[in-house]
TrEMBL record, chain A:
Membrane topology according to the record: Multi-pass membrane protein
Location within or outside the cell: Endoplasmic reticulum membrane
InterPro entries the UniProt entry points to: GPI_biosynthesis_protein_Pig-F (IPR009580)
Protein name: Phosphatidylinositol glycan, class F
Membrane-spanning ranges: 20-39, 51-75, 87-109, 115-136, 157-175, 187-212
The organism's place on the tree of life at top rank: Eukaryota
GO BP annotations listed: GPI anchor biosynthetic process
GO cellular component: endoplasmic reticulum membrane
Species per Swiss-Prot/TrEMBL record: Dictyostelium discoideum (Social amoeba)
UniProtKB/TrEMBL annotation, chain B:
Pathway given in the UniProt record: Glycolipid biosynthesis; glycosylphosphatidylinositol-anchor biosynthesis
Entry keywords, A to Z: Endoplasmic reticulum, Glycoprotein, GPI-anchor biosynthesis, Membrane, Transferase, Transmembrane, Transmembrane helix
Zinc in keyword set: no
Biological processes per GO annotation: GPI anchor biosynthetic process
Coiled coil: none
Regions that span the bilayer: 20-41, 543-568, 580-599, 611-628, 657-678, 698-716, 728-745, 765-782, 802-820, 840-858, 885-902, 908-927, 934-953, 983-1006, 1044-1068, 1088-1110
Family membership noted in the UniProt record: Belongs to the PIGG/PIGN/PIGO family. PIGO subfamily.
GO cellular component, as recorded: endoplasmic reticulum membrane
Entry's localization field: Endoplasmic reticulum membrane
Residue span of region Disordered: 191-215
Topology of this chain in the membrane: Multi-pass membrane protein
Full protein name: Phosphatidylinositol glycan, class O
């Protein structure tokens, strides 16, 4: 296994330098942040149009990650293969997250649409980048998230994005039981806010990490 | 050498119980101290005042005859009024009614300036105060905390001080059981409330039926009619001649209750004279405006103007023999809330108006009476408000020569009782309002004084009678105080007799008045100190002890983990420092004795309880000694020496690579460990918010799902190959979790198939069968196929003993018969069972459990004597201990299953399945990761803690006394026996903490030792030498019981941490008792839960030590 990793890393020539990768993540963060501020300031806020916001943010984030992967992700896959992987990962992840949200206690009869498309949003953040990178082999996913031997910047950055997005959604659930009577304290509005903020935070952290990361010496 | 080692092992085995017992004692003392300081109890006396029994002394027998003759004109005193209209405007603050100076440029803004929103709005009342001063009385109506409506109504109607737990015969209910003004107004002597079950809400139903009307008139002394807030109907069930209740819980509803009062009160009081006597109205609009908008809002203008018109219409329609009373039950803060003890919250308004009889002879009543403070106003309120009183005095002296008067809310009861001619309620502690009785005595000043003293003496001796009766059932009143009260009253009575018999006016009646009032003041001050003041010192000491014990447990856990890191340290065990602890306790007792003597000399023994000091100082010193002893034990570090003969370059590269891997792995470990601990900490922090406490089931379930997902992710990482069984296991875990979700746990699946479920018995039986018929077979399958088979080794042929199979099967059959045949028939009342027929099946379960427990503890099987190979050497004690613990858990589970009943049987099944799934997830597949154990124990304790709380809710319980399932005390028994009833109710209420505490050591042993050894049998042929070394290490680790000790201590930390946070939150919120009913019951439940879990942990540790000791003795016999 290690030999395979070494040989593949020696064969691959990085498409972009770490500066370009850092700029890519930074640009994605700026775009998502700008979309968030624009939608909330033009009376088209997540609070008022929850379902539509979930769809729009999910689509925007999906396109951003697909576009970034075409230019920056390593490997010899063609553009068409990457798009196929992304769609498959997005679909499977959507259902997985939907059932996890139901398991966490989301009301599955009252607001089934908003829960489902919140799963879509989480899938675009957490399942689409790894699926483009790894495909559908469970062992690859296991290696990515649990093995410390990351081969390149993209592996670590993908892990960071997944962790921060899920953590943001998790923390976003905390205000729901409080009695502050704010309009955003409802399912799934605060979690949508949390996941998007977590994802933006993860994007900026990836941008910094790409600059700081030192190339590992070849053994 | 072997003998010495065996002796050391014996000593080591006794340690686990000693440590647990030590920590449990400190925790229990902390809980006890906090409990004593915080929960203030007052006993409700069931006695009621009687019309023909005056509280005056015996030498007034002649007057008693007069009282009997004048029974129609009143009981203890002649009636002053024939009718009364009592209007309660909720949250009517004093300054809403008092006339405020008009300032030209004022535009609101709060503070001392006059507000256009709520000042000078009730002009009808202000005009009466100005134009008819002799017919009007106006006071600050000072409320005791808690300033919530139910407690205030209780104070206003009983005259008693409020406490947070009134222990009476209807514990948990809302109805006022002790004597009250409403009870005295409505009913004659010796009336039993239960007999008047027929109650017509509208009097119109009986207009055409003269016979019923006559019969109904005979039941009531006065026709009391209530309109408004439905809290009164809950407090006084079946008391009112007619009632018009309206719901009060929606604070955003401004007008429903008020419109109901407007609709019904004026028609009531304008009826014929014989249709009503007393009308009580409670309006909520002002209160709801305050809660929803705050007082500084235009809606308050509208509401107060509406109130003004309403009050004017009442004033214009009452007759000369009617007394009109307007009051607020509490005030409101600047943001419109109440519940606490601030001035704005406790200062309400009280206004009394009598169109035909003078009640305020301001010209002739002595100023000394007006200036004297009535007994019931709290000291702190009076002193802090003193400057304002002086300022008001100056202002009013310039204008109206009127003194602003403060009276306590509990002073109203005695005044109204005597004015309306009914006895004062038995438990009253308030004083009469002197102006009313002085002024209504006539024009002659001698008659005025006589009327006042007559009322005042009745009031005084009624209070004396109550104190004497209360002292018979409670020893809280010091005897010296009681003797002082008697002496004070005797002196005043002598003075009164001299005044009454003396022809010359040598005695000043004001001195007599002051004597009686001083008696009132001192009595109520004593009662207030005992019943309504927290003991902050005991509360502080309780919190400190709980905190110190948790810190010492955590310190001890860290020490245990660090010692157990290396191979050489596996056999090293910390001994419990029994001698040092004993010496430190003795030393602490000496210090506490000296401290108590010093404090008593300094007259501080009232503030610092000697009992608290005696318990606190030895505990603190013993904890400090324990921590000091732990620090002195050195940590054995394992250092592997690297051979210098290897290649340096290769070693350096290998080391750097190895360190890189170790660092990365540890980061992942930290992530998977920090998050469970973070959820544990966040759960404690959520206790400071009443929103999180009310939503605790959702909060706990959220954290539970998070932890189990992390556990599955960790398992996915550690598995070398992810198989189909693992997938099914994960899905089973998710389904089991989902079925205990707050969304779905109380969902009736039968409602999908039976659209219209009728209340007939057949449908009930069918519904129960459909819902739960699969529960008991599934439990049987889980027991038989999963638990008992898995605990058997491959090489051994031993199975579950026959007696256990018989007992468990019989119990399951008995439970099913009881649930589906006996209980529905009992509830349908079709068949008359005698008590043997009702109880035989539960008795079978109880007896089977007791016999099974006895057999498990006492039995010594020798089935495995034939196998003497090295593998069975480690297998035998592990297998035996595991089986015994499983049997004990099964028998307790049976009792829990019976007590929770058929309605909660799904929840009971989910408890079992969740424990089994988690045990399988935790099975390790790697042999080499030794450091993973202790973090796994911490995570397991956290998950089991959250599971027990979640299943507490899904088994039908809440943190509320009304939700306790008291009927479980009568399963199998007919008559009362409080110890047994309490035991059964505790087993029912805390079934999930008990079950998961019993399951914890089973899961630990199974995942830690048994499975690992089971796998080693497959590798036995490859490397025998290495295996023997590992076996020796495992044997020592097993016999030291270190893993179980760490797990038990983690459980103690989990529950102790919760109790600590709930104590801190109720400590901080003790004066903000709007949320009292949320936090206080949860505090009681948490404390009892911690004590029960502690008991079962101690029970398990003693049993495990006993079992290990038995096995060790066997080995010694073999050696000999």
């Amino acid at each position: 296994m290690a030999n395979l990793n070494q040989s593949s890393s020696s064969i691959q020539v990085p498409k972009l330098s770490k500066y370009m990768i850092s700029f890519g993540y930074f640009l994605m963060g700026i775009i998502v942040t700008a979309t968030m501020f624009l939608s909330n300031n033009n009376n088209f806020s997540i609070v008022s149009y929850t379902l539509l916001s979930e769809i729009i943010f999910g689509v925007i984030i999906s396109f951003l990650h697909i576009g970034f992967s075409i230019f920056a992700f390593p490997g010899n896959s063609s553009t068409l293969d990457k798009i196929n992987r992304s769609l498959i990962g997005l679909s499977i992840g959507n259902f997985v997250f939907y059932f996890l949200l139901i398991l966490y206690g989301a009301p599955f009869l009252k607001s089934i649409h908003t829960t489902f498309f919140f799963g879509f949003l989480l899938s675009s953040m957490c399942c689409l980048p790894p699926s483009i990178l790894l495909g559908l082999n469970p062992q690859n996913w296991k290696d990515l998230f649990f093995t410390p031997n990351h081969n390149n910047i993209i592996d670590t950055c993908t892990t960071i994005l997944v962790v921060f997005s899920i953590l943001g959604a998790w923390i976003g659930a905390f205000p729901i039981p409080l009695d502050w009577d704010r309009p955003w304290q409802q399912w799934p509005i605060s979690c949508v806010f949390g996941s998007i903020v977590g994802h933006i935070f993860g994007l900026f952290i990836c941008s910094v990490y790409s600059l700081v990361h030192k190339e590992k010496k070849s053994m | 050498m072997d003998k010495i080692n065996n002796n050391n092992k014996k000593i080591n085995r006794a340690n686990i119980s000693s440590f647990i017992l030590f920590f449990i004692c400190i925790l229990s003392i902390g809980i006890l101290l906090f409990f004593n300081g915080f929960l203030l109890m007052r006993f409700e006396l069931p006695l009621k005042s009687q019309c023909n029994q005056s509280p005056l002394p015996n030498y007034d027998a002649i007057n008693n005859n007069n009282l009997n003759n004048n029974n129609n004109n009143g009981c203890w005193m002649n009636k002053t009024y024939n009718k009364a209209v009592i209007v309660v405007i909720d949250a009517l603050r004093y300054d809403f009614v008092a006339r405020q100076p008009i300032s030209n440029g004022s535009s609101g803004g709060g503070g001392d300036s006059t507000s256009i929103y709520f000042h000078n709005r009730l002009t009808s009342i202000q005009n009466l105060i100005d134009n008819k001063p002799e017919n009007s009385l106006f006071y600050k109506f000072v409320a005791d905390s808690p300033t919530v409506t139910m407690q205030r109504i209780k104070g206003i109607t009983t005259g008693s001080l409020p406490t947070f737990i009134d222990v009476g015969s209807n514990f948990g209910g809302d109805a006022i059981v002790e004597d009250s003004l409403v009870n005295q107004l409505s009913f004659f002597d010796n009336h039993n409330n239960n007999n008047s079950s027929n109650n017509n809400h509208n009097n119109n139903n009986n207009k055409n039926d003269n016979n019923d009307n006559d019969e109904k008139v005979g039941k009531f002394r006065n026709k009391v009619i209530f309109i408004g807030d439905d809290t009164w109907v809950g407090l006084f069930p079946n008391h009112f001649y007619a009632e018009y209740p309206y719901p009060s819980f929606n604070v955003k509803d401004i007008d429903t209750v008020d419109n109901g009062v407007l609709e019904h009160l004026l028609p009531t009081i304008t009826k014929l004279n014989d249709e009503w006597d007393v009308a009580i109205a409670h309006l909520l609009g002002v209160d709801h405006v305050g809660h929803t908008y705050g007082p500084y809002h235009p809606e308050m203008i509208r509401k107060l103007n509406q109130m003004d018109e309403f009050l004017l219409s009442i004033i214009n329609n009452i007759k000369n023999d009617t007394l009109f009373i307007l009051m607020g039950d509490h005030g409101m803060t600047t943001d419109g809330n109440h519940g606490g003890a601030s001035l704005l919250e406790t200062e309400a308004a009280l206004f009394m108006y009598s169109p035909g009889i003078k009640i305020n002879s301001s010209n002739s009543i002595p100023k000394e009476i007006l200036k004297s403070r009535l007994s019931s106003v709290p000291f702190d309120h009076y002193d802090s408000n003193n400057d304002n009183i002086n300022n008001n005095n100056n202002n009013n002296n310039n204008d109206n020569n009127q003194i602003v008067r403060d009276i306590s809310q509990i002073d109203l009861v005695s005044t109204l009782s005597l004015a309306l001619g009914v006895p004062i309620p038995f438990g009253n502690l308030g004083s009469i309002i002197p102006e009313l009785f002085f002024s209504s005595g006539g024009e002659n000043i001698e008659n005025q004084w006589n009327n006042l003293f007559n009322a005042l003496r009745i009031n005084t001796f009624q209070i004396k009678r109550y104190i004497e009766e209360y002292s018979k059932i409670s020893k809280e009143f010091p005897i010296s105080k009681l003797q002082h009260f008697d002496q004070l009253l005797k002196t005043t009575e002598d003075l009164f007799n001299k005044y009454q018999n003396s022809a010359t006016n040598t005695i000043n009646p004001i001195d007599i008045y002051k004597g009686y009032i001083q008696y009132h003041q001192e009595v109520i001050e004593l009662c207030r100190n005992i019943w309504a003041t927290f003991d902050l010192f005991s509360m502080d000491c309780g919190i400190l002890l709980i905190l110190l014990s948790i810190i010492s447990i955590i310190f001890f856990i860290v020490k245990l983990i660090s010692i157990g890191g290396g191979a050489a340290g596996a056999g090293e065990t910390i001994k419990f420092p029994i001698k040092s602890i004993g010496i430190s306790i003795g030393f602490g007792l000496i210090i506490s004795t000296i401290t108590n003597i010093t404090l008593s000399k300094m007259n501080l023994s009232d503030k610092y309880s000697s009992q608290t000091i005696t318990l606190t100082i030895p505990s603190i010193i013993s904890i400090i000694c324990f921590i000091y002893k732990l620090k002195s034990i050195p940590i054995i570090s394992t250092t592997t020496t690297t051979s210098s003969s290897s290649n340096l370059t290769f070693i350096s590269q290998l080391k750097s690579f190895y360190l890189y891997i170790i660092k990365s792995i540890s980061i992942f470990k930290i992530i998977t460990t920090i998050l469970p601990i973070a959820t544990f900490i966040l759960h404690g922090v959520s206790f400071y918010s009443n929103s999180f406490i009310e939503a605790q089931q959702g909060v706990v379930y959220f954290f539970l799902v998070s932890n189990i997902l992390l556990l599955l992710i960790n398992s996915f990482k550690n598995k070398l190959k992810w198989s189909l069984n693992d997938t099914l296991l994960s899905i089973g875990t998710f389904i089991s979790l989902f079925l205990s979700s707050p969304l779905i746990w109380n969902f009736k699946f039968s409602s999908l198939f039976i659209p219209n479920l009728n209340e007939t018995n057949g449908d009930n039986i069918f519904s129960n069968l459909f819902e739960t018929f699969w529960v008991l077979p599934l439990i049987f399958i889980l027991w038989r196929n999963i638990i008992f088979k898995q605990t058997s080794t491959i090489s051994s042929i031993s199975t579950t003993p026959l007696i256990h199979q018989i007992l468990l099967s019989i119990s399951l059959i008995s439970i099913s018969l009881y649930w589906y045949i006996i209980q529905p028939l009992i509830s349908s009342n079709k068949y008359q069972f005698n008590w043997i027929e009702k109880s035989i099946l539960p008795w079978i379960v109880y007896l089977s459990s007791i016999i099974g427990l006895y057999y498990t503890i006492v039995n010594n099987n020798n089935n495995n004597n034939n196998n003497n190979s090295s593998t069975t050497k480690i297998n035998n004690p592990v297998e035996k201990l595991l089986k015994r613990l499983v049997y004990i858990c099964c028998y307790f589970y049976l009792v829990i299953l019976l007590l929770l009943g058929v309605e909660n049987s799904k929840s009971t099944l989910l408890m079992l399945s969740q424990a089994i799934f988690i045990a399988y997830i935790l099975i390790p597949t790697n042999i080499n990761n030794n450091n993973n154990y202790y973090f796994k124990f911490i995570v397991l304790s956290i998950i089991f803690g959250f599971l027990s709380i979640n299943d507490f809710f899904t088994s039908g319980h809440e943190y509320s006394f009304n939700k306790i399932q008291f009927e479980s005390a009568f399963i199998g028994f007919e008559n009362h026996f409080y110890l047994r009833d309490g035991l059964l109710v505790l087993l029912n209420t805390f079934s999930s903490p008990i079950f998961f505490t019993l399951s914890l050591p089973i899961v630990i042993i199974y995942t830690r030792f048994y499975r690992l050894l089971k796998m080693k049998q497959l590798v036995i042929l490859s490397n025998t030498k290495e295996l023997l070394e590992i076996d020796e290490n495992e044997i020592q680790s097993f016999f030291s019981l270190k893993d179980l000790l760490i797990s038990f201590l983690c459980q103690l930390v989990f529950y102790g941490y919760q109790t600590l946070h709930i104590c801190i939150s109720v400590y901080g919120l003790r004066r903000h008792l709007m949320v009292w009913r949320v936090f206080a019951p949860k505090y009681i439940f948490e404390s009892i839960q911690l004590l029960i879990v502690s008991f079962f942990i101690l029970f398990l540790s003693i049993l495990i030590s006993y079992f290990i000791n038995l096995n060790q003795k066997k080995n010694l016999i073999k050696i000999k």
